[in-house]
Design a protein that fits this description.
The protein has 101 residues and is α+β, with helices and mostly antiparallel strands. It has 2 domains: 33 residues; 67 residues, SH3 type barrels (Roll), CATH 2.30.30. 22% of the residues lie in helices and 34% in strands. The protein is globular.
Length: 101
């Protein structure tokens, strides 16, 4: 279906395909943004006090690309591989920042 606005002609189906491609590209970018072993900082909500931030490590990515499994509070065993022995929490990647802040 075509629509016309001024001198511009828009193909609604093409626009939808373009938006779908952008969404796929965004999801792929998110998937490669975090990987197992990455140090991350969990920020519970925008503008919160830094005392609420939590340090963690990505244990694995979730099948849903919007989430990662993150280990928090591992008795400060970050420098060894012992952090892998701790249970990970499914965390929205929108609440994570790469690196420890």
């Amino acid at each position: 279906m075509d629509t016309t606005e001024g001198n511009k002609k828009f193909d609604v189906a093409q626009r939808t395909n373009d938006e779908e491609m952008l969404l796929i590209a965004w999801e792929l970018m998110i998937m490669v943004r975090f990987k197992a072993g990455d140090n991350v900082t969990y920020i519970p909500f925008k503008g919160c006090d830094k005392s609420l931030y939590e340090r963690g490590k990505v244990k694995s990515m979730c099948p849903d690309p919007n989430y990662a499994f993150v280990v928090y509070h591992c008795n400060d065993n970050w420098d060894t591989d012992h952090w892998k022995d701790y249970t990970a929490s499914r965390t929205s990647i929108t609440d994570l920042k790469l690196g420890w802040l």
